[in-house]
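TODO from last week: model Nuclear transport factor 2 family protein.
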Amino acid sequence: MKLLNAISGAILAASLLFTACNSPETTVKEKADFTQVIPTLNAITADWNKGDLDKFVTVYDSAATFMLPKGPIGVNEMKEHYKAAFTETGTPTSTLSFDSLEMRPLGNSHALVTGRYTLTAQDSSKQSGRYTLVFEHSDKGWKILHDHSN
């Protein structure tokens, strides 16, 4: 009898799990167009190089985080960090370029992008580093959820 109850309990648990996983609330997002991730980065590079920091940060989700040595900060703090470190009167003082880009899908609507950035100052000096970006695709297009640049 104990064995029958255990088997019945296992069958009931499995059927509840199957039902929960296939309920209308559990919908799988349609696979996003991953070919648009890199062009999204190219567009914000152009925004930076035009001196439009406001447009540059529009690729970040409003809840995005940016990693600093002291820990993660939000988008507004990131924008202020960029203003203080890389601009004069709100306009970037160097041109931005990306290379060594690699994009890897993470499920149907997320992507991991790694690469190297280079900032070239007006005197031709360069500063570069590596970065990791986590993107999410939504009805607003590709948005950065997390940026870890060094």
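Done. Residues 2-21 form the longest helix (20 residues).
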